[in-house]
Amino acid sequence: INTGKPIHVVFSDVDGTLAHYPALVQEYSKKGKKLLKLPPSSTGMCGVLSLETLSLCSQIRRMPVTNNENHDSFLEAPKSVQSVNANKKSNAAGKTVKFVIISGMRTRTLLQRIPFLPSADAYCCEGGGRIFYQIPVGKPKNGETTSIIDDSGEEADVENKTMGTALPEIYESRNEEGAVQGHFRLQEDMEWRKIMGHVSAAGPDGYDGIVDIQKRDGLLWSFARKLVKMGWVIDYSGYGTCFRVHRGKQLHKAKQSKEIFDVELPNLKPAGLACSTNLGCVDFYPDRSGKKNW
Questions:
Q1: What is the pLDDT of residue 151?
Q2: Which top-level group of life is the source organism from (predicted)?
Q3: Which residues of the chain register pLDDT less than 70?
Q4: Residue 272: its pLDDT value, please?
């Protein structure tokens, strides 16, 4: 990729970009690619991700932020800097390309998949409605709770006024060879959550994923209730800032038609909401959340 401009961030979807489904599994296997099987999603789909993909994503995160007009490949640093940019700390400028995963998956699916996905600087799920960052932690010892490590390498307070509290689960970060190189927790961006939790967006009531939509405030859930009254079957379980409409789960066959499902349904959304297609489904979310089919 020769843009002639510095690349600071690479955004990637998961399904269809990093992970693929049965139709392509046999093709990949025939090519001798080593595959990693992901845990089933909430809809029962089970994708695979190649070890080569993990390696390439790891390379992206080691790339220095620099003008890449002389690079033959964005994924390969110039030979003159490869030796001094083996990791982030060796980069003289201290800046490497950030890798961000953005997906329509619900939060609980993301948390299940973290150990299998490429290591990322940020994870955006529910169509971009929720954002989590990697927070390095000390190595777990005998099940003890570990402290967050700040940029200086010192232990930092787990509580943070801007970010909130880090989730308790500890994950392993791995290098491109698959070896464990550190541990981290996920911490939600609470400033972003405040924006998404406004009544003009998704409202504040759905973040635990179990509150009935009849009791959820916010533009998103007002629209969801409207669709239900119109006879649409929606999936909101586990979602706080997004909901999904599955073509195959509609009780009325007419609603599964291309004309109604692909055209009329998306056009029902009010101003302030956006939608995108995802594996035979339509996801709805606040238009400020950022994810969109381009």
A1: 33
A2: Eukaryota
A3: 1-3, 22-33, 41-44, 67-94, 139-166, 174-179, 291-294
A4: 95
User: How many of the other CB atoms lie within 10 Å of CB of 288?
Assistant: 17
Reading the block at residue 172, the tokens are 């392993």
The whole-number pLDDT of residue 196 equals 96
| Domain ranges for the chain | 9-193, 198-286
Contact present, 53 and 118 (Cβ < 8 Å): yes
SS (H, E, C) the chain: CCCCCECCEEEECCECCCEECHHHHHHHHHCCCCEEECCCCCCCCCCEEEHHHHHHHHHHHHCECCECCCCCCCCCCCHHHHCCCCCHHHCCCCCECEEEEECCCCHHHHHHHHHHCCCCCEEEEHHHCEEEEEEEECCCCCCCCCCEECCCCCEECCEECCCEECCCCCEEEECCCCCEEEEEEEEECHHHHHHHCCCCCCCCCCCCCCCCHHHCCCHHHHHHHHHHHCCCCCECCCCCCCEEEEHHHCCCHHHHCHHHHHHHHHHCCCCCEEEEECCCEEEEEECCCCCCCC
Residue 2 has what pLDDT?
60
Tokens of 120: 């990322």
Provide the pLDDT for residue 265. Answer: 95
